[in-house]
Each structure stands twice: as structure tokens, then as C-alpha cells.
């Protein structure tokens, strides 16, 4: 556990103050959460109540009805989970930009210690860095992102293979420490009836209308109302249902069907993982066969993709995505906070090949608006964009094609990266994540190799086309379903 904890300031713990504060920003769940476990440990050790602040800002970049609804559904689940426990959950939703300023500091003034979520993306690390010196009490952040603690190694891995080799050597030791599955069950802790009026008067607790994400409530907020909510529900409860559905109906064929856009063959849990409604640890336990234990893992097998976990092939394939590929992005994001999103941080060969082809004729160039509305000449690309616009999620196979074509139809790689970032951040429930950047930068060859002999515009970047994709997998129904421009 200690490998997952970092102190962000050198202020002391104040054992006599009123409560322990857990400032929940990224692991928005009441179970399987190392940060919550740490906060509970402090509260028990100090004999103080635990206050969990779960806030939602309106001034976040890309705040919209879609993102707010998903987060509020998660807050409602957490409010219900904490309601039956001694923990004081404090959901707070900003009603105008800047209204929430000062809330964390105000709560921290009465706190023995503040615990936060160590999540390496979007504006969270900047927010933590700015907050740390302002807090009059120790501020710790805890990593509950994945199976591998991000700060266990300073090394940055440039390929999935080298990361797999490392995981196969080091992960068994980490699997011995799991977050508590049900930390609130049987919990005994001093309780806090209510927060002082000077806090709740200025920063009122979110009411029922907010926690229901009622359209009448959303309409009052200064957020983007042109990106509507989607059918996919937020919150830990829906995420667990979805995970069980995946394990029962799709996992056994995952390795064969995960590339098929017309099939419900993948977990669709990336939004739940992004907002922390579900933990990797919990999902990991759900997909493992009964009776599996880490001592099965044995020795490293040189970074091979299959065979290390000693579980059936589809589960091996799933864990390679969930653990190797997902946590590879967290490795880069946590160790290179200043440039992991940067075009210039791509491998030198990739930058060189794009530069060499910068002035190649580009028969198709589209504006951001044409991309956004799905107005290109390519029906499959337009359908992929249609699914992203209407469902807030789209299929990995199409994401790869989608990104490659944005590169081909943009004046430069740099501009293509900006477009991918904008579209994912605005429409995708799982956007603004370390994985969003590894996906978009993979399109431009991060974690990839050169593919000879080279072709116009792409040089030696891996090429993809809609015609090739449509030869490999069925897309007829997909085109019909999502092909209408926005
Ligand atoms: C251009 C591009 C943009 C992308 N943007 C995002 C994004 O914004 N957010 C995001 O979470 N993923 C992104 N990905 C990665 C991947 O496409 C999604 O994670 C996956 O499609 C989510 O669907 P799923 O949950 O059904 O995945 P499953 O196949 O069920 O996989 C389970 C989990 O493993 C992880 N995973 C799966 N595929 C990958 C991958 N290729 N790289 C890293 N982790 C992976 C995800 O957390 C996923 O939820 C992007 C990929 C590309 C090529």
C-alpha cells in the first residue's frame, strides 16, 4: 500500500482536528479503492469521522450534459453506498464557474489529514500541485489506477513488449495487496451528523434533482447543452452489471470477436474505468476463473502476450488490454507529466517520416466541423464518428481507422492530434484519459514500429483503410445504424 501513497506537501498531520478528509476526484467509488482505504485507515487510527468530498465543476473543459449526467449518476450511487455507513459523503455540484473555489481549503482547515486520488491525467495533477502548498495539513495522494503501482519504477516504457516483460517480473508481488472489496461493511467509526453551516451555507450539498441528473437541473448550469446524455449509465452499480454481463456473455469469445464492430464483444467499460466507477482490481477479480491465485503465475515468460496469466486464451487477451495496454499509458502519463500529450514526444523516426511527407499532395482535407459532423467522403469513417457522437463510445477497431484517417485528411500530424483530442474530449465518455492520449498518439506511432516500404502522406507510419477493414469484419449494419451525418 505504501508504494501507492505520495505526500504532496510537508505539512503535519493534526490528530486533534475534527475529521479526516478524502477529496475524491478520480476513483469515484465506495469500494475497491486504495485511496478510500487509506483515508479510512487514518480515520480509524485517529478516531475521527471521515468526510468524503465528491465535487463536480462546471468550468472543466468540455463540461456538458453528457459528462455531467454520467458523473452525477456515479455520485448518486456513492451517496446511496455511504448513506448506510458512518462515512459522511458530501456531494457538491457547482452551479456557476468558480463557485466551488475555496471549498477544499475550507474543509481542510478542520481536517487532520487530506487524502486525494493520484490520477495522472487531464487537469488533476495541476490542481493537486496548486492545492498542496495551500493546505494547512498533510496532503497525500494515493494511486488506485491499476494492478501495477505507477511509481514503483521510474522507468518509462516505449513498447508494450518491454512493459509486459517488466510486469511479468514485478506484478506477482503487487497482487498480494488488493484494495478492500467492501470497506464499508461492518465499519465502525465516529460519525459526523452534519457539516458546519458556514460550509454548507456557502457550498450546499447536491440535492435530489442534481443527483438524478434531472434535465431541469442540467438546464440551469453553464455547461455545453449541445452534447446530450447517452443511454450508457454512469455509476458503480451499472458498471458492475455491465462487467457481469460481459463476463457471462462475451468474455469466452473475446479473443475472436473483439475486432468486430457489429458484435457486442468487448466490455464497454472504458467510461466506468475512466471515471473510477469501477476499479481494475474488481474487474480483474470478475474475469478470473474460480480458484485462480497469484501463485499460479510463476516465472516471467519473456514478455509473451499469451500464457503468463495461466488462464483461458480469451481472458489472457482481455487482461493484455486491461493491464498491459491500459497501464502502459498510466506509466507514461505519471512519469512524463509535462509532455506525454505532446506531438514532439513521439519517437524520432515517426517525427522524421511525417516531416518528410509533410508536403505530399493530400487529396482530401477536412475542417474540424466536417469531421465533427461526419461529412467526409468515407461512409465508414462517418459512421464511426456517428457512433461517437450518439453513444459517447465507439469500437477500438474503428478508433484506429478513425485516427489514421484524421491524420491522412489533415494538413499535418500536429493538427491531426489536435482534432483527435478535441473530438474525443468533447464526445467520448472515456476521453480526457491517459489512454485517450496513448490511443491518439499510437495513430502517430507511439508504441508502434515502422512499416515499410512507405507510402505517400504516411511514410512508414502504419496505414489503415476502410476498404481493408470492411474486408476483414462485417460493417453493413454498422453503416446503416450510425451513418447519418450530425
Ligand atoms: C485513436 C484512439 C483513441 C482512443 N481513445 C481512448 C480513450 O479516449 N479512452 C480510452 O479508455 N481508450 C481509448 N482508446 C483505447 C481503446 O480503443 C478503448 O479503451 C476501448 O475501445 C474501450 O472499449 P472497451 O471498454 O469495450 O474495451 P475492452 O476491449 O473491453 O478492454 C477493456 C479495457 O482495457 C483497456 N483497453 C482496451 N483497449 C485498449 C487499448 N488499445 N489501449 C489501452 N487500453 C485499452 C480499456 O481500459 C478498456 O476499457 C483509444 C484508441 C485509439 C486507437
Description:
The chain has about 475 residues and is α/β, with parallel strands linked by helices. It has a domain at about 345-480: Orthogonal Bundle (DNA Cyclobutane Dipyrimidine Photolyase, subunit A, domain 3). It has 21 helices and six strands. Strands 1-6-5-2-3-4 form a six-stranded mixed β-sheet, sandwiched between helices. Strand 5 (about 110-115), helix 4 (about 125-130) and strand 6 form a beta-alpha-beta unit. Helix 16 crosses helix 21, helix 17 packs across helix 18 (about 415-425) and helix 18 (about 415-425) packs antiparallel against helix 19 (about 435-445). It starts with a strand and ends with a helix. The structure holds flavin-adenine dinucleotide. Flavin-adenine dinucleotide binds next to helix 11, helix 13, helix 17, helix 18 and helix 19.
Q: What's the topology here?
A:
Blueprint: E1 5-7, E2 19-24, H1 34-46, E3 50-56, H2 65-83, E4 88-93, H3 103-109, E5 111-117, H4 124-131, E6 139-142, H5 160-175, H6 197-200, H7 208-211, H8 215-218, H9 236-249, H10 254-257, H11 270-274, H12 280-287, H13 313-335, H14 348-356, H15 368-373, H16 379-391, H17 396-408, H18 413-427, H19 434-443, H20 466-472, H21 476-482
Helix pairs in contact: 13-19, 16-21, 17-18, 18-19
The protein binds flavin-adenine dinucleotide.
